[in-house]
Amino acid sequence: MTMTGEACIPFTYVLNDRLSILAVDDDPIQREFCAVYLAGPQADVTTAASAEEGLALLETTAFGVALVDVDMPGINGIEMVRRLRADRRFDDLPVMVITGREDVLSIDEAYAAGATSFMCKPVNWRLLGHQIRFMVRAHRALAAA
């Protein structure tokens, strides 16, 4: 039950399909929140503390979606998205950029790099779950068309 007395609807991602999520963020608290709020019966969450670590994981593990922070030391999130989009192996990987930036330039830069979606911090975890579900469904529908 919610505080208003309404029943909570159990959350599912993409029907009953399993989903493997890669969350890349240099902030350990954000990584922990991703692991806690997004993991569930249908979803596994793997976290990476840097773009370099995320790119290395993508070389060895298949993920259904990637969540990428922008401001990280070393390779930033925008450059990570550019590298993913330059590699045909990741054409089917939906990528959401999640950042504390909400200026027009940051939004445009993320989409120009190849982001599938964009979300501002602080993260509304319930909304993020729904946006992931929509992004994956839309990406799969486009690939099937």
UniProtKB/TrEMBL annotation:
Domain of life: Bacteria
Transcription regulation as UniProt keyword: yes
Keywords assigned: Phosphoprotein, Transcription, Transcription regulation
Transcription regulation is among the record's keywords: yes
Residue numbers bearing the 4-aspartylphosphate modification: 69
InterPro entries attached to this UniProt entry: Bact_response_regulator, CheY-like_superfamily, Sig_transdc_resp-reg_receiver
Response regulatory domain sequence ranges: 20-136
Gene3D superfamilies hit by this protein: 3.40.50.2300
CDD domains: REC
Pfam families according to UniProt: Response_reg
Protein name as it appears in the record: PleD family two-component system response regulator
Organism for this UniProt entry: Bosea massiliensis
